[in-house]
Structures
1.
Amino acid sequence: MDRPPTRFDFQTDDFYPRQMGEERPSRRVCSVTDALALVGDRYSLQVIREIAYGCRRFTELLEKIGCSRDVLAARLRRLEGVGILERRRYLERPARYEYHLTESGIELRSIVLALKEWGDQHLNHGKEPVIFAHRCGAEFHARTVCAACGEEADPGELRIIGGTDAVVGTPW
């Protein structure tokens, strides 16, 4: 039986922190902490990466990621439950499913690419496991740019201008 995905909201749903044995991930409202509570555990970003690479079936994911069946099943259930993945049946008998990224899951692409870039530079320099080419033909390297002007932000060029728990004016 297919289950409809549910969206997880840290502001209204305390299921995940309770499951992890925590009251709240942080007293301070922090989107980084909240996001890491969902995808920062071992294997979750690998699951997202492999599905983005086209490995969509349980056995393919198991082979590529190398974790136990129970761990992979738990990660898939949780990522589906919070709306990052969706299951699609591809075989009726026996029931078999493929996993696909939802819009929310696709939006994690830039984070995965940024982590890959950092890992290539600081952990696997000269032996990058995957090299991407952009459609223009150039080798692709992720970078963070301002959506308005397209320029990269160097350290100290960003400043806090608002938010629910902001120290306004603090450079970052």
Note: The chain has a mean pLDDT of 85.
2.
Amino acid sequence: MKEHKGIKRSLIERLNSGPVICAEGFLFEIEKRGYMASGEFVPMVSLDHPEALENLHRDFQHAGSDIVEAFTYNGHREKMRVIGKEGLLEPLNRAALKIAKKVATNPIEGTEPNLMAGNINNSNIWKENDSKTHLEVEKMFSEMIGWAVDEGADMLIGETFYYAKEAWKALEVMKKTGLPCVLTVSPMGENIMRDGISVVDTCKELEQLGADVVGLNCFRGPETMMPFLKKIRKAVKCHVGALPVPLRTTKKHPTFFNLPDSHGCKSHDGSHNRSYYAFPLCSLNNAGCWKSCICHGSRG
């Protein structure tokens, strides 16, 4: 955007003037490139192969992303504890944030500087009626958000929540920083949040709690994400974000976890369906998705 060359507008300033693009999919891209173990999905790449992560950020930047999101997805204390590397938690997070900041502050010549986003996601330990897990999750979120602020994040993204109340807790922690906050949820195949709250009501409450952008991310392709987005757009006044996976999910198979393995794969053990790689969207499908999002007022 040449008219803003050298001027870094805030997230809200950009959204008020048009759509903002945020590239995601780090986990699967890094895995496909051989820098992450399938199953664990912990972003050790920021420490083990920082050049690979920087290159991926630059690929996304070249493709048009306005935001450089730090790859700290699944880089939380619980995941690190599971793989016996809890001592590397802070170094991993800070390394990922520094790499993202480096890329964001070095945009493609003639373009507006990128925004750098700190990131938190679902904890995998949240239990609906267990206050002990709620406190532990809050502590996990707080330390990660603190590191993001230290490393100069311009905004914060909380994503892939399938418990509404965990998403609300994440936003509570994020709002304490004063930075713009994006919260996106990811309902499973039941098409409702795991604590029984509707997707639309979850987003309405997120707006009331102060989220600048609400919406959906991951799990669903355009066909099964768009119906929710239309309802959310009608229900909230804030900006709406959409980050679908580029896969052909359907009403019968609403998330990539539900996609059938009909291609003779014999390695699937039932713990995690890997057949989604056989259901990619073509570029025309993707283009149609974004045109429809813009038509219905989604900006992120």
Note: Residues 284-290 have pLDDT under 50 and may be disordered.
